[in-house]
Design goal:
271 residues; globular; alpha+beta; five-stranded mixed β-sheet; Metallo-beta-lactamase, Chain A; six-stranded mixed β-sheet
């Protein structure tokens, strides 16, 4: 799947005990180290031994959580014995894990993918001095999970909230449904100051949630005169809706977009 990519990790300590593990520039995993336990959020692309990378950073008992079931966030699961993923993404994740090229890489390294353990909104993981609370946000995938660290006022969002939100795949819910789901989670803006998402170069101001919600509303309301068709990538083509964020606030990226399909904007009308 990513066999033509040079495999290497770049590890940055974003805050004391909070590490970003950039896997070959394709996606990020995050390691949160508490006083008693540590939690790995996503396992990246499976091109590198993320288990060894984590053990070089901490020897504390480890919890592993996938924010969603896409390959660039789960293919390192074979390095671990237990992994959490919301049940709504299990079949999607397995469809990627069972691909021949993934099996070949796993066999080469002697990795075995564990069965998933379910994670749901309301689950809380106590690491000692730091907790991670799970919140569901369907959209980019049906089983998207975000993790709030209240002590750090940080929200780890996977791909559910980021500057390049993909809603154009066959399995995506409608733009309108995604908008409604995000509206339910806007209270998190009062609980966090910054976001770290699955492709982040740095921290993003929590107001990215509001900018994203406003952009989703623009699509639903038909304010799409400047949208254009984008071709290429693993989905042949999709509509692209761009939006801006405040350049006076801290963002890792100032160019933001949503990819979607014209026939999957309003709920209950997908062909």
């Amino acid at each position: 799947m990513f066999t033509d990519v040079k495999a290497e990790f770049k590890i940055d300590e974003m805050r004391p005990g909070i590490f970003k593990i950039d896997d070959s520039g394709l996606s990020n995993a995050f390691l949160v180290v508490g006083e008693e336990k540590a939690c790995l959020i996503d396992t990246a692309n499976g091109l590198n031994d993320i288990g060894a990378a984590v053990r070089n950073l901490t020897d504390k008992p480890l919890i592993v959580i996938n924010t969603h079931g896409h390959p660039d966030h789960i293919l390192g699961n074979g390095c671990f014995e237990h992994v959490y993923l919301n049940h709504a993404d299990w079949e999607l994740a397995k469809s990627f894990i069972l691909q021949p090229e993934v099996d070949a890489i796993s066999r080469e390294h002697g990795w075995t993918f564990p069965e998933f353990t379910d994670i749901n909104e309301g689950d809380v993981f106590d690491l000692g001095g730091r907790k991670l609370a799970a919140y569901a946000l369907p959209g980019h995938s049906d089983g998207g999970i975000m993790l709030l660290c209240p002590e750090e006022r940080l929200l780890f969002t996977g791909d559910a909230i980021n500057h390049h939100l993909w809603l154009h795949a066959p399995w995506n819910i409608s733009v309108e449904e995604c908008m409604e789901e995000l509206e339910k989670k806007m209270f998190l803006m009062e609980k966090a100051d910054y976001i770290l998402h699955g492709h982040a170069g740095d921290f993003d101001d929590i107001s990215l949630m509001q900018y994203l919600l406003d952009a989703l509303k623009e699509i639903v309301e038909g304010k799409t005169d400047e949208d254009f068709e984008r071709k290429g990538g693993f989905i042949e083509k999709a509509m692209c809706h761009t939006y801006k964020v405040d350049e006076n606030k801290k963002f890792a990226c100032y160019e933001s977009l949503i990819l979607y399909q014209k026939d999957n904007v309003r709920k209950n009308v997908k062909s």
